[in-house]
Design a protein that fits this description.
single chain, about 325 residues, alpha+beta, HIT family, subunit A, three-stranded mixed sheet, 13 strands, Ap4A_phos1/2
Length: about 325
C-alpha cells in the first residue's frame, strides 16, 4: 500500500488489536451471535441473532403536536468527533476519511470508513469514498484476508446516520459460528458474479472489477451500476425523489440520490440493489425483519427472539422478506 493513502501494512491486525482494546475498555458493544444457515433458491443465507442491536439508539424524532414551536434536537453525529477508544486510523486517503470501530459491532473487527468532514449519506458516493474503501480491501488482501464493504443510502436501505460512512466486515469474522468453518457460505455478490447456482428474488446490478482498479475506474463502474439500479427502480417505491430527476446534479452529488439502495464492494465485485422496503413482517403479531447492506453478503441480522425462531423454523419466511425489499426480478432491465 502506498503510504500516501494512509493505510499501513498489517491493517487486519491493527483493526483487531484496536477492537480488542475497545471491547475490553467498554468502548464498543459486541456479543457473539447465534447463527443458522438457510437456503433461498439454492443461495446460502446466514441468519444471525444479534439481540445487542436492539439496544442501538435511534435518531431523535421531531417535536410532537403539544410543542410544535420547539426545535427538534440535533441528532448526535458519532463520526464528527469519534471517541479516541474507537479510532483506528485518523487519516485515510490524504485526510478525506478516517477509519473507526463500529460502536455496535455485528461481528468482530467491524469498522467504519467515515468522511472527516460532513458529507451526506443520501448523496451519491464520490471517487474518494470508493478509493478509501478499496484501499482497505487491498490492504486486507495483502495480508491474505477478504474484506466486505457495504453502504446504506436512503430511507429503505437500513441507513441510520446522515454523515457519510461505509462499513467494513472481515469475511473470516463473518464465517464465525457457521458449521465447518463456514465452507457452505460465500459472500453473495461474489457468488452471483461467478455464476454459481441459485438466484436471489430481487434485482442486483453487479460488475466484476479489474485488478488494479483506480479511483476513477471504480467511480465510473459505480455510476454505471447506479444508473442500472435507478432504471430498474423506476415506477416502484424505491424512487424517493419527486418530479423529474436532474440526473446530472444527482450524479455530481449536488442533490440527494433519487433511489434508496445498498452498495457492496469486494476485491472482485461491485454491486447495487435498489431498495423498495427496509423489511417485512415475519410473525403473526407484526414482528419484522429489517435488512441493510449485509443482505448483499448473504446475511440477515435478527434483533428479537420471536423473529429468530420464526425465520429459523421456516426459511420460506426469509424468502418472502427478500422478495419484498427490492425490485422483483420480473422487472429487471439488465442481467447480472
Amino acid at each position: 500500500m502506498s503510504p500516501s493513502l494512509g493505510v499501513p501494512s498489517g491493517l487486519p491486525h491493527l483493526v483487531h488489536d484496536a477492537f480488542v482494546r475497545a471491547k475490553t475498555a467498554g468502548d464498543l458493544s459486541f456479543f457473539p451471535t447465534q447463527v443458522a444457515l438457510l437456503r433461498v433458491h439454492g443461495v446460502p443465507f446466514q441468519l444471525r441473532f444479534a439481540p445487542a442491536l436492539a439496544k442501538k439508539p435511534k435518531a431523535a424524532k421531531p417535536a410532537g403536536d403539544k410543542d410544535k414551536s420547539a426545535q427538534p434536537p440535533t441528532p448526535f453525529n458519532p463520526f464528527e468527533d469519534p471517541p479516541p477508544g474507537l479510532m483506528v486510523i485518523p487519516d485515510v486517503c490524504g485526510g478525506t476519511h478516517r477509519l473507526v470501530l463500529n460502536k455496535f459491532a455485528i461481528s468482530q473487527d467491524h469498522s467504519i470508513l467515515a468522511t472527516t468532514t460532513f458529507r451526506p449519506q443520501a448523496h451519491v458516493l464520490e471517487a474518494t469514498d470508493l478509493a478509501a474503501a478499496y484501499t482497505c480491501i487491498e490492504a486486507y488482501a495483502d495480508a491474505g484476508e477478504e474484506l466486505f464493504v457495504f453502504f446504506n443510502s436512503g430511507s429503505h436501505s437500513g441507513a441510520s446516520q446522515p454523515h457519510r460512512h461505509l462499513q467494513l466486515l472481515p469475511v473470516a469474522k463473518m464465517r464465525e459460528g457457521l458449521e465447518d468453518g463456514g465452507s457452505g457460505w460465500d459472500v453473495l455478490v461474489d457468488r452471483l458474479i461467478e455464476g454459481k447456482s441459485g438466484e436471489v428474488p430481487f434485482y442486483v446490478a453487479a460488475a466484476r472489477l479489474s485488478p488494479g482498479s483506480t479511483p476513477s475506474s471504480l467511480h465510473t463502474t459505480y455510476l454505471d451500476l447506479y444508473r442500472q439500479a435507478r432504471a430498474a427502480a423506476q415506477g416502484t417505491s424505491a424512487v424517493i425523489a419527486t418530479g423529474d430527476v436532474d440526473t446530472t446534479a444527482e450524479e455530481s452529488g449536488d442533490v440527494p440520490a433519487s433511489i434508496s439502495y445498498n452498495l457492496a464492494l469486494t476485491k472482485e465485485t461491485m454491486a447495487i440493489i435498489p431498495r423498495t422496503a427496509e423489511g417485512a413482517s415475519v410473525t403473526s403479531d407484526g414482528g419484522s425483519l429489517s435488512l441493510n447492506g449485509t443482505v448483499l453478503a448473504g446475511t440477515a441480522l435478527v434483533k428479537n427472539e420471536a423473529e429468530w425462531d420464526a425465520l429459523k423454523s421456516d426459511s420460506s419466511r426469509l424468502e418472502e422478506v427478500l422478495a419484498q425489499i427490492g425490485v422483483p426480478l420480473t422487472r429487471r432491465t439488465a442481467a447480472l
